[in-house]
Design a protein that fits this description.
Helix content is 38%, strand content 16%. The chain is an alpha/beta fold and 443 residues long. The structure holds pyridoxal-5'-phosphate. Its cofactor is pyridoxal 5'-phosphate.
Length: 443
């Protein structure tokens, strides 16, 4: 049934060209499994897990039921000076899934909050150890860590620097981007690169700031929002070694790679590297209720508790009203149970290979295609930009796909497909073929 009875006077859409949107609204009114219903009664296949969130697919009864039950039991309770039973249970499950001694979970409500929380933990931890001078952060070019000032500062998104640059944190530097044009085609594997993307960290960036001043390095294991850029083999292991050598904390922003996208619990498991902090959000609740968090190694928490301050003094002066919200925590518990019961992370790994094969066999040689990258359950096709109008080609292709019933994600001149883990081969075929037709039509 078509639903058109909404007016667009009040809702200012985030990260959206609003002027274009008003001419051609794209409004969802329902979703089930892999498929949305739109306001004008059309079906659209969710090719991006609704911003990398909906691993188990839409409208999953066990999650919905858990939320309803929680609302009737404990709807909300203060997060400060007291807590709720669901938050403890969810934290325990998350800690049990995390590798190594990543055992202490600080909840928040989004990936942006997780980024800022992790940076604040880094400063507080070093200060607690008597190294308060460690206050330099290192991020990476094209890194995305959300929209808070901390996350934007360590992020490497030019549009953020253009508009918000003057308000960003001062003591921040950036690793170079990890893309090697010689590795434009990456097919279900970690690329090998002749380029040493970390050389300048040791030869220039750390000497410039003095390593003893550096609090933390934060990276996404795979650069997700930028367009699924995959680090060369050994990159994250070496980054871990460099951080260890200089007493620098390593933060993995796993808001996209966490909870199954790589076919493993976390990107840290996929790459066999344990960071000091691991940021998560999105898929932890299947996207159904906002939740984010930072998983910290035991030694960070232990250090923060090792204080001479009186017992009524708060050890870490940070938190959100909705940290560990009971309804979000109930959603997380049900989601993580469901992922396990249906073995959905392994399925994501298997379907990732199918998706990667489809990308490479379909897009190679199509007009304007200059790269294809697949690993985990996500794949990207990179297109040559229209001269003078970067991003226009991919955006128009995105619109065209939407009209034809496929939700794909434009990122600059890259188009990404990252479906829910329940995806079937037929959905992959629909998504990839729709995208391919559109790429040809926009030659
Ligand atoms: C790696 C990463 N960090 C942080 C964020 C920000 O998350 P949120 O939009 O929930 O604030 C995102 C969002 O896509 C992300 O991909």
């Amino acid at each position: 049934m078509a639903y058109n009875d909404f007016n667009m006077d009040s809702h200012w859409l985030p990260f959206t060209p609003n002027r274009q949107f008003r001419k051609e609204p794209r409004v969802f009114t329902g979703a089930d499994g892999m498929v949305f219903t739109t306001h004008d009664g059309r079906k659209v296949v969710d090719g991006i897990s609704s911003l990398w969130c909906v691993g188990a697919g839409h409208n999953r009864k066990p999650i919905n039921e858990a939320i309803k039950k929680q609302l009737d039991t404990l709807d909300y309770a203060t997060a400060f000076q007291a807590s709720n039973d669901q938050a403890f249970k969810a934290a325990g499950m998350i800690a049990a899934m995390a590798p190594g001694d990543l055992n202490k979970v600080l909840f928040c409500n989004s990936g942006s909050e997780a980024a800022d929380t992790s940076l604040k933990v880094a400063l507080a931890y070093h200060r607690a150890r008597g190294e308060g001078h460690r206050n330099v952060f290192i991020g990476r070019e094209k890194g995305y860590h959300g929209v808070g000032f901390g996350g934007m500062s360590v992020g490497g998104i030019p549009a953020n620097r253009k508009v918000f640059g003057p308000a960003l944190l001062p003591r921040v530097d950036h690793l170079r981007f990890i893309h090697d044009p010689a590795n434009a085609y990456i097919h279900n594997r970690e690329p090998e690169s002749q380029e040493d993307f970390l050389a300048e960290l040791e030869t220039r960036i750390l000497p410039l700031h003095d390593p003893s001043n550096v609090a933390a390095i934060i990276v996404e294991p795979i650069a997700g929002s930028a367009g699924w850029y995959i680090p060369p083999k050994g990159y994250l292991k070496r980054l871990r070694e460099i951080c260890d050598k200089h007493g620098i904390l390593l933060i993995f922003d796993e808001v996209i790679t966490g909870f199954g996208r790589m076919g493993t619990n976390f990107g840290a498991d996929f790459y066999d590297v344990v960071p000091d902090m691991l940021n998560f959000a999105k898929a932890v609740t299947n996207g159904v209720i906002p939740m984010g968090g930072v998983i910290c190694r035991d030694r960070i928490y232990d250090q923060m508790m090792k204080t001479d301050a009186a017992e009524h003094i708060i050890e870490f002066f940070h938190g959100y009203t909705y940290s560990g919200h009971p309804v979000a925590a109930a959603a997380a518990i049900a989601t993580l149970d469901l992922y396990q019961q249906e073995n959905l992370f392994a399925r994501a790994g298997e379907m990732g290979k199918v998706l990667g094969d489809a990308f490479h066999s379909t897009f190679k040689g199509l007009p304007n295609v200059i790269g294809i990258r697949s690993l985990g359950l996500a794949a990207a096709v990179e297109l040559a930009p229209i001269a003078g109008s970067p991003g226009k080609r991919a955006f128009e292709i995105y619109l065209d796909c939407f009209r034809k019933g496929a939700l794909v994600r434009p990122a600059g001149d890259v188009l990404v497909i990252a479906p829910p883990y329940i995806v079937e081969k037929q959905h992959i075929d629909t998504l990839v073929n729709t995208l391919a037709d559109s790429v040809k039509a926009h030659a």
